Amino acid sequence: MIYHNIHAARFLARPNRFIAQVELDGAVETVHVKNTGRCRELLLPGCTVYLEGSANPARKTKYDLVAVEKERPGLPLLLINMDAQAPNRVFREWMGAGLGEALGLPRPTLLRPETPWGRSRFDFYWERTDVSRETSVLRKGFVEVKGCTLEEDGLALFPDAPTQRGVKHLRELAACREAGYEAAVCVVVQMAGMTAFSPNDRTHPQFGSALREAARAGVRVLAVECAAAPDSLTITGPVPVRL
Q1: Which of 112, 187, 203, 230 stands the most exposed, by the fewest C-beta atoms within 10 Å?
Q2: What is the H or E stretch that residue 117 is in?
Q3: pLDDT by residue (tens digit) across 179-212?
Q4: SS3 of residue 101 by DSSP
Q5: Is 127 exposed, middle or buried (0-12, 13-18, 19+ CB in 10 A)?
Q6: Residue 14 pLDDT > 80
Q7: d(Cα 23, Cα 84) in Å, to the nearest integer?
Q8: Taking residues 45-64, what's their average pLDDT?
C-alpha cells in the first residue's frame, strides 16, 4: 500500500488518543493519529514522525500521523508504521494476490472483508474451489488480522494493551473451526527485522492463553513482517511464531 504527500515532523505531545501535536516546518501543527492504541513506547517527545497530507479541505486536521522512528540503544533506528488501518489493507492485497499460499492461505476465489459469524465480525471471509478430475471441493475460512507495533529486543509482541475484543475473536475462531471452517489469525508486524512473534503475556495473559487455546483447536496462528517506509507498507514474508 502507498501513501501520498508525506512529510517528516518532530513529535511534541499527544493530548488525547485521536490527535497529536507536532513541529512541522517550524510551526506547531495538530494532526490526526491513525492509531487509538497507547503507543507510549513510540510517541516520545522529539522523535521523528511521518505525516500524510490530506487533499480534503473540509477536514479539521490537515495531516494523518502514519509512521514513527523508534530509537534503540546500540541499534539502527527502526521505522514503524502505526496506521491501524494499514494491516487489513496490506493483508487483503497480499492474500488476494495468492502470496499467502506459502503459509497455507489459498489464493481465494472470494475474499470478503468484515463478515459476521456467530457473535463476532471477522476481518475476512474467504472461499476457494479446488477442482480435480473426480471432485470439486469448496473450502471456506475466516481470518482475523492483528496489527503489531510493539517491539522489544527484536521480538514482536501483541497486544500492547489489554484487548477483551481480541480474546473474543480468538474464541469465535475456534468455534468456526469446530463448525467446519478453516480459521486463522494473522499478525501483521508493521516493521522489519523481527526475530519472532509472541503474545504479550505480561500485558494481557488472558490473550496469550486464548491464542494458545485457539491453536490447539486448529486455528492457524501466523505472523508476517513488513517493509515499512515513510510512504509505503509491504508484507515481505513470515515471522516465526513462539507460543
Answers
A1: 112
A2: strand 110-117
A3: 999 999 999 999 999 999 999 999 999 999 999 9
A4: helix
A5: middle
A6: yes
A7: 22
A8: 94
Write the DSSP assignment of 115-161 as a string of letters. Answer: EEETTEEEEEEEEEEEE-SS-EEEEEEEEEEEEE-EEETTEEEE-SS
Confidence of residue 133 (pLDDT cuts 50, 70, 90): confident
**Cα 69 from Cα 186, distance rounded (Å):** 24
Whole-number Å distance between alpha carbons of 17 and 15? 7
| Residue 37: burial class (beta carbons within 10 Å; 0-12, 13-18, 19+) | middle
Distance CA 23, CA 1 (A): 26
User: Residue 41's closest CA among 200, 234, 237, 168?
Assistant: 200
Q: Would you say 169 and 117 are in contact if contact means Cβ atoms under 8 Å apart?
A: no
The C-alpha cell at 128 is: 476457494
Q: Mean per-residue pLDDT for 145-152?
A: 96
Residue 234 and residue 226 in contact, taking contact as beta carbons nearer than 8 Å? yes
Residue 223 C-beta-side C-alpha neighbours within 13 Å: 24
Here the contacts of 110-114 (C-beta below 8 Å, separation 24 or greater) are: 113/88
120 grid coordinates: 463476532
- How far is 152 from 47, CA to CA, in rounded Å? 18
Cβ contact 144:131 at 8 Å:
no
Tell me how far apart the alpha carbons of residues 125 and 115 are, in angstroms, rounded to a whole number.
6
For residue 74, which of 177, 166, 182, 153 has the smallest C-alpha distance? 153
